[in-house]
User: Fold this.
Amino acid sequence: MNYLRGDLRDQLAYVGQDVVRTGLVVGSGGNLSARSPDGDSCWVTAGGTWLDRLDRSSFVRVRIPDGSVPTDRPAVPTVAGEVRPDVSSRRRALPTSEVELHLATYRARPDVNAIVHLHPQTVLLLDALGERIRLVTTDHGFYLRRVTRVPFRLPGTAELAELAADATRDGTNCLVLSRHGCSVLADSVELAHRRAANLEEAARLTYRALVAGRLSELPELPAEFLARIDDGATNV
Assistant:
């Protein structure tokens, strides 16, 4: 395996650097999260972070059941020998304003361990044009399987979070949030990263066919291939 291993925050930081470097998004266009091994909490990007400048301090641990942020302040001794909380830890970063989008999905999908929420340029352009993304290659079929569109709701709202979570309950892992972005789910950070990259590639190929005036000629993937994916018989 050649993907970055170790701390989940390091893996998410790598995703942030890569999606900006490869042009999927501009620097602050999205937020990322990963479920902690305890299953009860997740690491999510802090508000105002730039995706290509993330490090471990750029993430906030949030409890999935209630959205609370643990206040694990280390105790420090004073000159007099008494112990009190570290005052410097009180100025903690806050999670992204879209944290509910992540939490609602984790609650709805216990099998999901990573969420990549981005504002990818071609995905959003096709949505604004009223065009759905076509799955052109076998990689698109394998990693994405299907893409579901969620109607526009204000970003950061509980309404959007619940709509998006509901759209994943049937096993869908790739959502287009209309005029907003995408939400891509997986059981690992690596797989969520691959799905996000393939979603934008599928969007770019769809747009090229649209510009060439040949979108109506773009065939769907063979049904027998998609059936093999459903049966778990295909390995890309």
Observations:
- The chain is about 35% helix and 15% strand.
- The mean pLDDT is 90.
